[in-house]
Amino acid sequence: MKTLKISFVFALLVFAGLAFSSCKSPGGEIQVPSPGLEGAGPALEVPPGTEVPPATPAVPVSPANYNLTINVLGFGTVSSASEALSGSWRGLVVISLPTNVVVELSATPDTGCAFLEWSGDCTGTSSCIVTMNGNKTVQANFETIFMEPAPIPKQLSVQFIGPTGSGKVIVTPPMVECIADCAQTYSEASPAVHLAATANPTYDFKGWGGACHGLLTTCDITLVSDYTEVTANFDVAMREVEVEYDSANTGTGRVRISAVPPSGASSSIVCTLPCRQTYPVNTVVTLTALPDTPSSYFDYWGYGECMPPDSYTCSPVTLNIDKLFRVVFKRTPITPLEPIRPRIDLGPRIPIPPSGPPAGPIGPIGPGF
């Protein structure tokens, strides 16, 4: 009867879901926790040798968080913009996330690298989607790719030689007009550049120097060095006056050239023909014919801007362009002299009496006359 009572109490405790220790106490008593109280309840006396049923196993409880391990192998980043996780990472990182959250990861390679694939709990090359129903590990694999080195910038320097404001140079590309020293930088490996020089009024383009050559006003070059220099040479425009004998000339002579330039001192020179003199553009010159007298005399100007053409002086003449003049000198004619007759020596001269009757009275004329 006592045994039945103990069995009934034990079944009641199990039905209520109370846990108890399976271990026996030294006195043969079982410690049964009381509901809502800490420690053991009142001891129940169990006769020695009584069978005790096993305890009901506990229900496992899932942890609140799991670990996401991200490993970046190579040069790149792994990033996420998910609601549960936001940021970007390099190298190795371990992140604790709530159970069952879903995270989407993206891989971005650095410049000069490429993303290969995911490994671990993600595979493939698209984005990686992870559900945190356990600890997860993903690895992003990057590789370095060969890239052409960036071209070294090429610099073109245009230097002006000559008076300030004497001309300009247009550089194409980028269609820049330089009126003084200038420079252009190009990022291309071997850019082709066109240069065109233009002289301002009263100046002349005198040619290129440096990477360009010649007297043409245009130049085409390809920049292969890091630094290339071109010089554009300008100077005051010069004009030539030339004086020569005309084809009708028979005498000899010279010409005096008097010059008054736009700026600076005047000058004068006597030229032996043919004669060439150079002066700044728009110089006003005066030509004066100087025949070699008495053997020659000036006749006229055979060619040029001389009016009237038979005037010794030809003026004024403006040298806005090169100009040519021709002069005519004539040989002075020689007046012929009377011939000189030779004289014959006849010895001493004998006086010859005058002819006719002697002077004095005339006597009577005798008979027979």
In short, what is this structure?
This protein is mainly beta and 369 residues long. 4% of the residues lie in helices and 47% in strands.
Describe what this molecule looks like in 3D.
- This protein is mostly beta strands and 369 residues long.
- The chain has 4 domains: 2-45, no CATH class; 65-144; 154-236, Ubiquitin-like (UB roll), CATH 3.10.20; 239-331, Immunoglobulin-like.
- The protein contains 1 helix and 26 strands.
- The strands form 7 sheets. The protein has a 4-stranded mixed beta sheet with strand order 6-3-10-8, with no helix packed on it. A 4-stranded antiparallel beta sheet has the order 5-4-7-9, with no helix packed on it. Strands 14-11-18-16 form a 4-stranded mixed beta sheet, with no helix packed on it.
- A hairpin with a 6-residue loop joins strand 20 and strand 21.
- The longest helix has 14 residues, at 2-15.
- The protein starts with a helix and ends in a 38-residue tail after the last strand.
- Mean pLDDT is 83; it is low at 1-41.
